[in-house]
Amino acid sequence: MVSVSLMCLGLLSLWVVRGEVAPNFDNCKEFFFREMPVSGLNIALPTPVETNTQNLPNPEKCLSAYNAASPAYICQIYNNQYYFATLYDRGRRIPLYSAYKMDIKGEPERNGSVVNYEPQLVHPDLAKDQRKMKECCIHIYNNILMNDCTESVPQYQPKYKLNWSQAVHDDFVSYDRGHLNPAGHHRRDASKATMTFTNVVPRNPKMNQWNQYEQKLKNVLSKGCSNMYVVTGVVPSNDWVDQNQRVNVPSHYWNAFCCTDNNNTPIRSGGALCPNTHEGRVTEYNTVAELQNVLGKDFDIELNIFFNRCQFNESYSVPYWKCFLILVIWIIVRTCKKMQMKRIVCIISYKLMPILSRTKFPLSTLTSFKGITQNYSQPTSNINMDTHLSHHKSMKSKKVFGLVLCTQRFLRHHRIFS
C-alpha cells in the first residue's frame, strides 16, 4: 500500500477538474431550462453493499462510504466553474443523464480522453476534484489512515474502493466510452470538463448513427437558438459488462433539447431515441412531449425533462392573416418592380411595405407547426427547412422563408390545401 501511495505522490500534478457530489442540483440549476431539474426519473438502483465483512476491523467506519444514497447528484466543475450536471446511478455505476447548455456559437472541440474519476463517490469527505486514478488513491489512502482502517485489508485499499464506487477504465475493454454530454458540443474548458467516467456509459463500438445525430444537434437543430438546453440519458437494461454485474450496459440512448430565444422563451423542442446496438437507428421526435410519451409507454420510464415540456406558446407567433397579407403585398411589390408597373395597387403596396416590414418573424413562426422537419412549400416537398435556412444566413432570407412558412400555416388552417 505504501509503495502504491509513493508512486501516486510521484505522479501527482496540478488539476482543475471538479465534480461536486451533493443531495440535489441546487448549485448547478442553470443547466436546466427555467432552472427546473429533470423530475420523476426514479429508477436508480441502491448503492452496492459489501457483503464480505466477516472479521473486518472497524467495518462501520471503514465501509461507511458504501452506504451513500443513490442516485448521486454531481455538479461538474472545471477551473472553479460549473459546466454541466449529472445524475449518477451508484447501483449500476452509470450516469442516468447529463444536462448541459450547448455552446452554439463556437467551433466544437474534443481534447484528450476520458481519464478522470470522482473521489466523492468513494467518500463524501474526499476532495471535490475529479482526478486520475493514481491521484485519487492518495486521497483515499489518507482517508483510510485518518479513520484507522487497516491498509492490509483488501476491501479498504484505495483501488478496491474506487472500483466499488464507479466505473473504471477496465470496464470499457469491449465497449466505447459513450459520452452523454459530448465534448464536441463545447469549446475549451467546457469540452475538457466532459472527460470524466461519471459522464460516460458503455456504448456499442459501431453505434454510428448516434454520433451523426449529435453532429446534427450541433450543426442543424441549434440554428436560430439563443439558448440550447440539452439532456441526454439512457435506458438501463438487464445486460452488464461482465458476470459480476459491475457496470450496466444501457439498452437505449435518449436525447431531449429545448431551443429558446434571447428571452428564454421556447422556440422549439425535440428529441431522439436510439438502441445501443451497431445496427441501431435513431428515431427523432418533433417535441419533448412525444419523446416522454414513448419513454413512458415502451420503457416504463416516467419523467419530466423540461419545465412545461418546453412547449411553444402559439401566442408568440404572427397571426395567420397578417403573415398572409405581408406575403401578398411582398409579391405585388416584387412584381411591380420587375415589370416597372405604376398602377395604384403598386403605389399602395409601396406605401404599406415599409410599415409591414417591421413585423418580426422569430424562428418560432417557422417551426410552430409539426416541428422543424415540416416541409415549407408543398406537402410533397422533401426539403428540410432548417438545413435550407443554414445556407441563407442573412435576416432577409430568414424573413422570406418565415413569410412562406407562416402563409402555409394560414392556408392549412383554412384547409386551402392540406
TrEMBL record:
Give one Pfam hit by family name.
Answer: Endonuclease_NS
> Which Gene3D superfamilies does the UniProt record give?
Extracellular Endonuclease, subunit A (3.40.570.10)
* UniProt keyword Kinase present: no
Picking any one GO molecular function of the record gives:
metal ion binding
Signal peptide per UniProt? 1-19
Every DNA/RNA non-specific endonuclease/pyrophosphatase/phosphodiesterase domain range: 80-306
- InterPro entries assigned: DNA/RNA_non-sp_Endonuclease_sf, Endo_G_ENPP1-like_dom, ENDOD1, ENPP1-3/EXOG-like_nuc-like, His-Me_finger_sf
User: Which SUPFAM superfamilies has this protein been placed in?
Assistant: His-Me finger endonucleases
UniProt superkingdom: Eukaryota
The portions of this protein that span the membrane are 316-333
Q: Which UniProt keywords apply?
A: Membrane, Signal, Transmembrane, Transmembrane helix
Q: Could you tell me which residue ranges the ENPP1-3/EXOG-like endonuclease/phosphodiesterase domain spans? A: 81-304
For this entry, the protein name equals: Uncharacterized protein
Could you tell me which species this protein originates from? Esox lucius (Northern pike)
